[in-house]
Amino acid sequence: MASVRPELHRLLLFVVGCVKRDIIMDWRGELLLLHWNEAGREVTFSVRKYSRDLFVFADFFLERDYDKFCVLLENRVGNMRFIVDAGANIGCSAIFYKCRFPDAKIVCIEPESSNFDLLNHNIQVNQMQDQIVSLKKALWTEKTSLDLMQRDWSHDGFLVMTGEREDEVIDQVETVTLAEIQEIFESGHIDLLRKILKVRKRNFSLKRSILHHSAITPTPFLWKCILSLFRNLRLCDPFPSCNSAANQSI
User: Fold this and answer.
1) What pLDDT digit, counting tens, does each position of 30-67 carry?
2) Fewest Cβ atoms closer than 10 Å to its Cβ: which of 3, 42, 48, 193?
3) Confidence of residue 156 (pLDDT cuts 50, 70, 90)
4) What tens digit of pLDDT does each residue of 102-112 get?
5) What DSSP string runs through 160-229?
C-alpha cells in the first residue's frame, strides 16, 4: 500500500482536530479558512494548508496548550494592557491573546514577507487593526539590518542571525528593540513578551541581552512568563541566571 505524503497526513490530522472542536472549514485554493467560535469569542483565520501554520493554529485553538498559561496571567497580572509578540508568524498567538485579553494593545513583530502578509490579512479580517499593530522587523539588541535565512530542512522555517551562515539567505530585515517599541507606543511596561526562538544554541545569550538593552526591568514574574513559552526548546536553559528566582516567585 502506498504511503501517505507527510504534508497530507499532517493536513488530515489537522482536519480531524478541527472537526472535533467544531471549527468550520472552507477550502480556498492553497488556503484553508477556519471559523472558530467559543464562549462568545469568534475569529476567522486563513492558514496555508501545507505549512507549519497548522501546528501554530493547533497549539492555540485546538490543543489549547496556552489556556493554563492565560489563567496564570489573569490571576497574577490581572488586566493585560501591553503585549509584544516577537516572531508573530501569521497571527495565531496575537489573535488568541486578543480574545483572552480584549483590553490589551498587541505589537506583532514578524520579519518574513509571506508570514507578514498573512498576519495582516488575519488581523484585518477580524477587524482588530486598531488593537493589533504589525511591524515587519526582527527583535534585536540594537538598530541594524540582519540576514533573514531559510532553514535548510524546512521550506517555511526562518531565522535571523549574525556571523556564520549555514542556511540560505533570502532577505535583509531591519531590526527593532524593546526600548524602541516602548517609546513608539508610549508604554511604561510590557505585561507579556512572547518570543519564539529560532536561533542556534550559541546565540541564546543574545536573547537575554535583548531585555538587558531595553527599558524593561524584568520582574521575576515576567521572567516566568517568558520562560514558560520556551516549551519547545530542549537545547539548554536560555536564562540560567534568572530561572531559579523566577521559579521561586511563582
Assistant:
1) 999 999 998 888 999 999 998 889 988 998 999 887 88
2) 3
3) low
4) 999 999 999 99
5) EESS---SEEEEEEEEE-HHHHHHHTT-S--SEEEE---S-GGGHHHHHHHHHTSS----HHHHHHHHTT
What is d(CA 30, CA 221) in angstroms, rounded to the nearest whole number?
A: 41
The greatest distance separating any two alpha carbons of the chain, rounded to the nearest whole angstrom, comes to 61
- Rounded to whole angstroms, the Cα distance separating 133 from 116 reads 11
The grid coordinates of residue 82 equal: 501591553
Take residue 1 and report the three cell numbers written for it.
500500500
Give one word for 222, left, alpha or beta, with left for phi > 0 and alpha for psi -120 to 50.
alpha
Residue carrying C-alpha cell 505589537: 107
Tally of CB atoms within 10 A around 25: 14
pTM of the model: 0.76
